[in-house]
Amino acid sequence: MSNQWYNFNEETDLPYIFGLDNNQSMIKIPQESFVVHKDALDGFSFFLDEIRNAGFQYKIISTLRTFEHQKKIWEAKVLGDRPIMDKQGSKPIQNVQELTPNEVLWSILRYSALPGLSRHHWGSEMDIVAVKENAIMPKKIELTPAEFAPDGPFYDFSLFLRDFTSSQIGHQFFRPYITPLRPAYLGPEPWHISYRPLSEEIYRNFRYDYAQDFLLSKIKEGTLLADEIAKELHRIYRYCFLLGS
Ligand SMILES: [Zn+2]
User: Fold this and answer.
1) What is the pTM of this model?
2) What structural domains and CATH numbers belong to the chain?
3) Contacts (Cβ under 8 Å, ≥6 apart) of 142
4) CA of 119 to the centre of ligand 1 (A)
5) Listed residue (195, 70, 45) closest to 121, CA to CA
6) 22 against 242, higher pLDDT
7) Which residues hold their Cβ within 5 A of ligand 1, which is an ion?
8) Which has the closest alpha carbon to 13: 103, 168, 124, 169?
9) How remote is the CA of residue 130 from the centroid of ligand 1, in Å?
Protein backbone atom coordinates (compact mmCIF):
# COMPACT_ATOMS: atom_id res chain seq x y z
CA MET A 1 0.00 0.00 0.00
CA SER A 2 1.43 3.34 -1.03
CA ASN A 3 1.81 6.06 1.56
CA GLN A 4 2.87 8.71 -0.88
CA TRP A 5 0.85 11.88 -0.72
CA TYR A 6 -0.32 13.46 -3.92
CA ASN A 7 1.88 16.22 -5.24
CA PHE A 8 -0.55 18.99 -6.19
CA ASN A 9 0.52 21.16 -9.09
CA GLU A 10 -1.38 24.40 -9.58
CA GLU A 11 -0.30 24.74 -13.21
CA THR A 12 -1.55 21.41 -14.43
CA ASP A 13 -4.08 20.27 -11.85
CA LEU A 14 -6.82 22.92 -12.03
CA PRO A 15 -8.78 21.17 -14.81
CA TYR A 16 -8.37 17.91 -12.87
CA ILE A 17 -9.70 19.12 -9.53
CA PHE A 18 -12.78 20.62 -11.19
CA GLY A 19 -13.54 17.44 -13.12
CA LEU A 20 -12.84 18.98 -16.51
CA ASP A 21 -9.80 16.99 -17.56
CA ASN A 22 -8.20 14.27 -15.51
CA ASN A 23 -4.88 14.27 -17.39
CA GLN A 24 -5.13 10.54 -18.07
CA SER A 25 -4.46 9.88 -14.42
CA MET A 26 -7.48 7.62 -13.91
CA ILE A 27 -7.19 3.85 -13.98
CA LYS A 28 -9.76 1.05 -13.98
CA ILE A 29 -10.19 -1.01 -10.81
CA PRO A 30 -9.48 -4.62 -11.90
CA GLN A 31 -12.70 -6.63 -12.45
CA GLU A 32 -14.83 -3.52 -12.00
CA SER A 33 -16.27 -0.99 -14.41
CA PHE A 34 -15.18 1.94 -12.25
CA VAL A 35 -12.04 4.05 -12.38
CA VAL A 36 -10.09 5.84 -9.65
CA HIS A 37 -6.98 8.00 -9.61
CA LYS A 38 -3.89 5.87 -10.17
CA ASP A 39 -2.44 7.05 -6.84
CA ALA A 40 -5.54 5.69 -5.09
CA LEU A 41 -5.72 2.30 -6.83
CA ASP A 42 -3.62 0.35 -4.31
CA GLY A 43 -5.57 1.88 -1.47
CA PHE A 44 -8.96 1.04 -2.94
CA SER A 45 -7.85 -2.49 -3.92
CA PHE A 46 -6.85 -3.07 -0.31
CA PHE A 47 -10.15 -1.62 0.91
CA LEU A 48 -12.20 -3.91 -1.37
CA ASP A 49 -10.15 -6.95 -0.26
CA GLU A 50 -10.85 -6.08 3.36
CA ILE A 51 -14.59 -5.89 2.66
CA ARG A 52 -14.51 -9.34 1.02
CA ASN A 53 -12.36 -10.76 3.82
CA ALA A 54 -14.93 -9.55 6.33
CA GLY A 55 -17.56 -11.68 4.59
CA PHE A 56 -19.39 -9.08 2.53
CA GLN A 57 -20.39 -8.85 -1.10
CA TYR A 58 -20.20 -5.26 -2.25
CA LYS A 59 -21.55 -3.12 -5.02
CA ILE A 60 -19.76 0.04 -6.06
CA ILE A 61 -22.25 2.77 -6.93
CA SER A 62 -19.99 5.60 -8.03
CA THR A 63 -16.35 6.65 -8.11
CA LEU A 64 -15.10 9.25 -10.56
CA ARG A 65 -17.62 11.73 -11.89
CA THR A 66 -16.65 14.38 -14.42
CA PHE A 67 -17.91 17.97 -14.45
CA GLU A 68 -20.25 16.99 -17.31
CA HIS A 69 -21.63 14.05 -15.37
CA GLN A 70 -22.21 16.18 -12.27
CA LYS A 71 -23.80 18.85 -14.45
CA LYS A 72 -26.31 16.28 -15.75
CA ILE A 73 -27.25 15.34 -12.18
CA TRP A 74 -27.50 19.01 -11.24
CA GLU A 75 -29.68 19.95 -14.18
CA ALA A 76 -31.98 16.95 -13.80
CA LYS A 77 -32.67 18.14 -10.26
CA VAL A 78 -33.21 21.75 -11.30
CA LEU A 79 -35.64 20.59 -14.00
CA GLY A 80 -37.46 18.21 -11.68
CA ASP A 81 -36.41 15.07 -13.60
CA ARG A 82 -34.67 13.80 -10.48
CA PRO A 83 -35.99 14.25 -6.94
CA ILE A 84 -34.50 16.81 -4.57
CA MET A 85 -34.40 15.22 -1.15
CA ASP A 86 -35.61 16.95 2.00
CA LYS A 87 -33.29 18.08 4.79
CA GLN A 88 -32.98 14.64 6.37
CA GLY A 89 -32.48 12.92 3.02
CA SER A 90 -35.48 10.72 3.69
CA LYS A 91 -38.04 11.82 1.10
CA PRO A 92 -38.28 14.07 -1.97
CA ILE A 93 -39.41 17.68 -1.58
CA GLN A 94 -42.92 17.90 -3.04
CA ASN A 95 -43.37 21.59 -3.81
CA VAL A 96 -40.18 22.33 -5.77
CA GLN A 97 -42.04 24.73 -8.13
CA GLU A 98 -42.88 26.94 -5.16
CA LEU A 99 -39.25 27.41 -4.14
CA THR A 100 -37.19 30.43 -5.15
CA PRO A 101 -34.08 29.80 -7.31
CA ASN A 102 -32.00 30.37 -4.19
CA GLU A 103 -33.96 27.76 -2.24
CA VAL A 104 -33.70 25.29 -5.12
CA LEU A 105 -29.94 25.86 -5.24
CA TRP A 106 -29.39 25.19 -1.55
CA SER A 107 -31.82 22.28 -1.45
CA ILE A 108 -29.88 20.53 -4.22
CA LEU A 109 -26.54 21.32 -2.59
CA ARG A 110 -27.46 19.40 0.56
CA TYR A 111 -27.09 16.14 -1.34
CA SER A 112 -25.46 16.98 -4.67
CA ALA A 113 -22.35 19.00 -5.25
CA LEU A 114 -22.13 21.88 -7.66
CA PRO A 115 -20.55 20.71 -10.95
CA GLY A 116 -16.83 21.37 -10.43
CA LEU A 117 -17.01 21.20 -6.64
CA SER A 118 -17.60 17.50 -6.10
CA ARG A 119 -15.11 15.32 -4.29
CA HIS A 120 -16.07 12.73 -6.90
CA HIS A 121 -14.06 14.67 -9.51
CA TRP A 122 -10.81 13.67 -7.82
CA GLY A 123 -10.77 9.89 -8.25
CA SER A 124 -10.25 9.59 -4.51
CA GLU A 125 -13.89 8.92 -3.59
CA MET A 126 -16.22 5.96 -3.71
CA ASP A 127 -19.91 5.39 -2.98
CA ILE A 128 -20.32 1.76 -2.02
CA VAL A 129 -22.84 -0.57 -0.40
CA ALA A 130 -22.47 -4.18 0.79
CA VAL A 131 -24.43 -7.01 2.34
CA LYS A 132 -23.23 -10.24 3.96
CA GLU A 133 -22.23 -12.92 1.42
CA ASN A 134 -25.30 -15.02 2.12
CA ALA A 135 -27.74 -12.08 2.00
CA ILE A 136 -29.46 -10.76 -1.10
CA MET A 137 -28.33 -7.44 -2.51
CA PRO A 138 -31.43 -5.21 -2.85
CA LYS A 139 -32.46 -4.66 -6.48
CA LYS A 140 -33.22 -1.02 -5.92
CA ILE A 141 -30.52 0.98 -4.15
CA GLU A 142 -31.35 4.60 -3.43
CA LEU A 143 -28.46 5.69 -1.20
CA THR A 144 -30.56 7.01 1.66
CA PRO A 145 -29.61 7.18 5.36
CA ALA A 146 -32.46 4.71 6.06
CA GLU A 147 -30.67 1.96 4.12
CA PHE A 148 -27.75 2.26 6.55
CA ALA A 149 -29.90 2.53 9.69
CA PRO A 150 -30.36 -0.47 12.09
CA ASP A 151 -33.26 -1.98 10.14
CA GLY A 152 -31.82 -1.15 6.71
CA PRO A 153 -30.09 -3.63 4.38
CA PHE A 154 -26.65 -2.04 4.74
CA TYR A 155 -26.53 -1.68 8.52
CA ASP A 156 -23.91 -4.42 9.01
CA PHE A 157 -21.76 -2.79 6.37
CA SER A 158 -22.18 0.55 8.08
CA LEU A 159 -20.73 -1.00 11.26
CA PHE A 160 -17.89 -2.48 9.23
CA LEU A 161 -17.08 0.94 7.73
CA ARG A 162 -17.17 2.55 11.16
CA ASP A 163 -14.72 0.01 12.56
CA PHE A 164 -12.52 -0.12 9.47
CA THR A 165 -12.06 3.65 9.20
CA SER A 166 -11.12 3.90 12.86
CA SER A 167 -8.67 0.99 12.74
CA GLN A 168 -4.92 1.09 12.25
CA ILE A 169 -5.13 -0.48 8.79
CA GLY A 170 -8.07 1.61 7.66
CA HIS A 171 -6.90 5.04 8.76
CA GLN A 172 -6.15 6.02 5.17
CA PHE A 173 -9.89 6.11 4.59
CA PHE A 174 -12.51 8.35 6.10
CA ARG A 175 -16.12 9.34 5.58
CA PRO A 176 -16.42 13.07 4.94
CA TYR A 177 -20.23 13.14 4.98
CA ILE A 178 -21.04 11.86 8.44
CA THR A 179 -20.79 13.66 11.75
CA PRO A 180 -18.64 15.23 13.08
CA LEU A 181 -17.48 16.46 9.66
CA ARG A 182 -20.97 16.86 8.22
CA PRO A 183 -23.48 18.97 10.17
CA ALA A 184 -25.71 16.69 12.25
CA TYR A 185 -28.98 18.32 11.11
CA LEU A 186 -28.37 16.94 7.62
CA GLY A 187 -28.84 13.29 6.82
CA PRO A 188 -25.48 11.51 6.62
CA GLU A 189 -23.95 9.89 3.53
CA PRO A 190 -22.40 6.85 5.23
CA TRP A 191 -21.82 5.14 1.86
CA HIS A 192 -19.29 7.75 0.75
CA ILE A 193 -15.68 6.93 1.49
CA SER A 194 -12.61 8.99 0.74
CA TYR A 195 -9.01 7.92 0.21
CA ARG A 196 -7.27 10.36 2.50
CA PRO A 197 -3.71 10.51 1.06
CA LEU A 198 -5.08 11.90 -2.20
CA SER A 199 -8.19 13.80 -1.13
CA GLU A 200 -6.64 15.56 1.86
CA GLU A 201 -3.87 16.86 -0.32
CA ILE A 202 -6.31 18.31 -2.84
CA TYR A 203 -8.54 19.67 -0.08
CA ARG A 204 -5.60 21.40 1.61
CA ASN A 205 -4.54 23.00 -1.64
CA PHE A 206 -8.01 24.07 -2.78
CA ARG A 207 -8.49 27.82 -2.91
CA TYR A 208 -11.52 30.02 -3.44
CA ASP A 209 -9.88 32.01 -6.20
CA TYR A 210 -9.50 28.80 -8.24
CA ALA A 211 -13.26 28.41 -8.13
CA GLN A 212 -13.89 32.08 -8.78
CA ASP A 213 -11.45 32.42 -11.67
CA PHE A 214 -11.48 29.02 -13.25
CA LEU A 215 -14.75 27.30 -12.45
CA LEU A 216 -17.19 30.17 -12.69
CA SER A 217 -16.42 30.80 -16.35
CA LYS A 218 -17.24 27.14 -17.09
CA ILE A 219 -20.47 27.41 -15.13
CA LYS A 220 -21.44 30.53 -17.04
CA GLU A 221 -21.00 28.68 -20.34
CA GLY A 222 -24.39 27.16 -19.67
CA THR A 223 -25.23 25.51 -16.37
CA LEU A 224 -28.77 25.94 -15.06
CA LEU A 225 -29.01 28.46 -12.18
CA ALA A 226 -25.68 30.00 -13.27
CA ASP A 227 -26.67 33.51 -12.07
CA GLU A 228 -27.71 32.23 -8.67
CA ILE A 229 -24.51 30.18 -8.46
CA ALA A 230 -22.41 33.26 -9.27
CA LYS A 231 -24.14 35.23 -6.49
CA GLU A 232 -23.67 32.47 -3.95
CA LEU A 233 -20.31 31.07 -5.01
CA HIS A 234 -18.44 32.16 -1.92
CA ARG A 235 -20.96 30.55 0.41
CA ILE A 236 -21.14 27.45 -1.76
CA TYR A 237 -17.38 27.18 -1.65
CA ARG A 238 -17.32 27.44 2.15
CA TYR A 239 -19.59 24.45 2.52
CA CYS A 240 -18.98 22.57 -0.70
CA PHE A 241 -16.97 19.64 0.59
CA LEU A 242 -19.25 19.12 3.59
CA LEU A 243 -22.76 19.41 2.20
CA GLY A 244 -23.30 16.80 -0.48
CA SER A 245 -21.23 14.87 -2.95
ZN1 LIG B 1 -20.46 10.17 -2.88
Assistant:
1) 0.91
2) 10-239 (3.30.1380.10)
3) none
4) 8
5) 70
6) 22
7) 127, 192, 245
8) 124
9) 15
